[in-house]
Amino acid sequence: MKSPLLHAALAAALCAVTTRAQDAVPSAEVVLRELKAGNDHHVGKKYAHPHQTAERQRELAGGQHPHAIILSCADSRVAPEIVLDQGLGDLFDVRVAGNVAGDAEIASIEYAAAHLHAPLCVVMGHQRCGAVTAASEGGEAEGHLPPLLALIRPAVQSARAQSGDLIENAVRINVENVVRQLRASKPVLAEFVDHHTLTIVGAVYSLDTGKVAWLQDSPSTK
């Protein structure tokens, strides 16, 4: 049950998002189309390199208004600004091995949704993910890896029941699981999703082609 203080804070955040939307902020659908176009640039190696000027840097010194949140793997080959052809201030990046959503990642996404009013969150996994591969292997993980791999293992278990490549299926299922987790995350993200001020979608990046495959579980991804 929400406390009156928390309810008031959420109401204020939702009001701020609505007000900003009325000020011609792009919708999640428009932003998603822009990201798809940016990925096409990456695939064709014909980059627009938007918002990468000294003027843009100076403009952002006073504040940020990213139009998308990207929860992606920390893998060095999957840099969101490059694979989606975006620039300074365009994306709020949350990067962690295996694109999992622990408390720190969810808190970061909540901040971007509630305070920066980003209308779209993309959970982006990638082909041959090392974290997913590690989660599929037996043996004892070292250091701080066990809790992270534990978040991925449900996807691996589901993938074992499917035909096809185990890791490829587990990468996709892991993204789907995280999308569902974020959409249901209370008290903040679920309320934003319910009020249609935040859209959360999944995607998988191909290391071979550079293409992002958008998971088709929402009309917004079509």
Written description of the protein model:
- The chain is of the alpha/beta class and 222 residues long.
- It has one domain (4-221): Carbonic anhydrase (Beta-carbonic Anhydrase, Chain A, 3-Layer(aba) Sandwich).
- The protein is 48% helix and 12% strand.
- The chain has 9 helices and 5 strands.
- The protein has helices at residues 4-22, 28-44, 54-60, 80-83, 103-114, 130-136, 145-160, 166-183, 189-194, and strands at residues 68-72, 91-95, 120-126, 199-205, 212-214.
- A 5-stranded mixed β-sheet has the order 2-1-3-4-5, with helices on both faces.
- Strand 1 (68-72), helix 4 and strand 2 (91-95) form a beta-alpha-beta unit.
- Helix 6 (130-136) crosses helix 7 and helix 7 crosses helix 8.
- It is globular.
- It starts with a helix and ends in an 8-residue tail after the last strand.
- Residues 18-22 and 218-222 have low confidence and may be disordered.
CATH class category name: Alpha Beta
Structural class, judged by helices and strands?
Answer: alpha/beta
Strand content: 5-15%
- List SSEs in N-to-C order: HHHEHEHEHHHHEE
List keywords for this structure.
222 residues, alpha/beta, Beta-carbonic Anhydrase, Chain A, five-stranded mixed sheet, 9 helices
Explain the layout of strands and helices.
Layout: H1 4-22, H2 28-44, H3 54-60, E1 68-72, H4 80-83, E2 91-95, H5 103-114, E3 120-126, H6 130-136, H7 145-160, H8 166-183, H9 189-194, E4 199-205, E5 212-214
Parallel strand pairs: 1-2, 1-3, 3-4
Antiparallel strand pairs: 4-5
Helix pairs in contact: 6-7, 7-8
